[in-house]
Amino acid sequence: MHIAVIWQRFLPYHAARIRRLRERLAGTGHKLTAIEVASRDASYGFDVARPDRIDRLCCFPGVSYHDLKARDIRSGVLSVLEELKPDVVFAPATPFPEGMAAVSYRMRSGTLAIMMDDAWEHTDRRGSVTRQIKCLIHRNLDGAFIPAPSHLPYYTALGFPEDRIFFGVDVVDNDYFAEMSMRARLKAPELREVLGVPADYFLFVGRILPRKGLDTLLAAYMVYRSKSVKEPWGLTMVGAGSGIEDVRRKAGGMEGVVFAGARFGDSLCRYYALAGCLVIPSLSDPWGLVVNEGMASGLPVIVSRGCGSAKTLVHDGENGWTFEPRDEEALAGLMIKISGLPAQERMKMGKESQVIITDWSLERFARGVLQAIEVPRRPSCGLMENMAARLWNGRVRIN
Questions:
Q1: pLDDT per residue over 338-377, tens digit each?
Q2: Collapsing DSSP states into helix, strand and coil, what is residue 74?
Q3: What are phi and psi of 334, to 5 degrees?
Q4: CA atoms of 221 and 233, how far apart (whole Å)
Q5: What is the pTM of this model?
Q6: Which domains can be identified in the chain, with CATH numbers?
Q7: What 3-state class would DSSP assign to 152?
């Protein structure tokens, strides 16, 4: 069987998943083609020439995804699929043009198409009409590959039977983060000086966007510093994005706040290694892979319930806590709570994070793919379903 996996742009965690899947497919007779839509985009700051050590086919090399029109992406990806002739295609959700290219290919070729997605009811604010159209289009897909059973009700409501839903799409290379963090901790004193971070700090990692809840984080941190009975921890923010200047202005001269800018790979692992707790205050997030990364690095976590991973990965009181989005008082209370624990207790919570995240490894992704390729093709659709799929090109948007 020839399997094609499409992503908008291959980031480090995509490359890690592909490497693991190739390892699993070795000796099975199956062939894998990794397809990247464009080599650049406006959502992430990764270097174009990143050495991710995987072979992939790029549909629009040297071009930014966000400079392309949806119809051009759909037709370009479709042309690549028709040339490759894979037996099964894993592609992003139907709101994206590359997802619709997979639908078009399935309709023309009679092969399998599996949608990869991590949206859930909290992140889908569109009306009932849009949802009905989605359901029509989804009749032209054979399955959905999603993060976890926590997302299951949303996808069954979108027209996917439970036996056509598979889990494990949102994973990172746990071993890499665990190993690099362990190495960094062995050099903690000198690294703290190099990075300019305090002995203890809360860590935020992510793009600086309004939906990431940084207003809540800054407000909570201000409350935390005013109420903390011990030497207060610092707050280190790793990331970049369109909202960075606004966040810097709101932080003003707030004591203890460090803006580290965008950090990736080994450099990012150093910040995970030296932190006391990862704090993710998102108002709305499909999953939040930084939670996986922080847990694999051995950190306790405080995660907003607006984050899709919160109810699956965070076990309250064991490896961290969850709180309601925008509840700055609750977040401040949890920051006081974690920073007031003895170091051994925090270390125990961090180790529990690593135990929990063990089941969310690259193997989980590979296992989900291997399960999904066994699903039988859905019966042919009706006129309305086919018309909806032909008319919708998807939308080019910044995530």
A1: 999 999 999 999 999 999 999 999 999 999 999 999 999 9
A2: helix
A3: -70, -35
A4: 9
A5: 0.95
A6: 2-171+361-391 (3.40.50.2000), 174-357 (3.40.50.2000)
A7: helix
